[in-house]
Amino acid sequence: MSKPSYVILPEAYYKLFFHAAKHPHQPVNGVFLGTQNGVEGAVIIQDTVPLLHHWTSLSPMMEIGLDLATQHAQTSGLKVVGYYQGCERVDDTSLAPVGEKVASRIRTGFEDAVAFVIDGQKIGTSEVALVPYHPLAATSTWRPVSGEPLPFTPGSKFQLSSADSPSEAARYVQDQNLHFAFGDFDDHLEDVTIDWLRNRTCLP
After folding, report:
1. What is the pLDDT along the chain (204 residues), one digit of tens a residue?
2. How many helices and strands (H and E) does the chain possess?
3. Cα–Cα distances in angstroms (integers) from residue 107 to residues 99, 147, 169, 175, 197, in the given order
């Protein structure tokens, strides 16, 4: 069965960018919320919910954060449709074992789930700083999407709804420091006033 196409809206891209920019030397992860029109229809990634920035395993905090993000998606009329992570090293774009586990768990609730690893070498540029991963059929093993056309190029099943999202996200960080207003579930555990599920204060 062929995979659907995936379209990332600006708000979702900004938030994952802010997450990586706020914790440049730490691993970060989170989930994508979105919708899908019918079977094999396009998956529209509308929002991002950031989870953690100092995780090493599928911890109780990860489990709780994922459950709360799923509940938030349901009350918003959305689904958890994907997972993302950023690695400590800027040149590392491999999906960690914990990432595979979380992505596979998401897949049990959404068959066309996708995972992305943030490309630290492209953060801050006009290029899309994401490497998409798909699961191997009927397994919990995930591999980078390969073949032509390359992701986020013309004709690819992976697209941004606005090609300016990467450069705009970088500008919001460099000129307005919006990433400092951004919080994930880790931050919320330290300060319960941080609205990690919505992060409205960091949006332009």
Report:
1. 578 999 999 999 999 999 999 998 889 999 999 999 876 789 999 999 999 887 656 678 889 999 999 999 999 999 999 999 998 888 899 998 999 999 999 999 999 999 999 999 999 899 999 999 999 877 779 999 988 899 999 999 999 999 999 999 999 999 999 999 999 998 898 899 999 999 998 887
2. 5, 8
3. 12, 23, 28, 37, 21
CA distance 38 to 40: 6
**65, part of any domain:** yes
Kindly state whether residue 200 falls inside one of the protein's structural domains.
no
- Does any domain span residue 201? no
The enclosing domain of 55 has a CATH number of 3.40.140.10
- Give the C-alpha separation, 191 to 138, whole Å: 40
Total tally of structural domains belonging to the chain: 1
Question: In 3D, which of 91, 13, 95, 19 has the Cα closest to residue 46?
Answer: 13
H/E run at residue 15 = helix 10-22
The answer to the question of residue 198 being in a domain is no
Q: Which domain holds residue 158?
A: 6-190
Other beta carbons within 10 Å of 48: 25
pTM for the complete prediction? 0.93
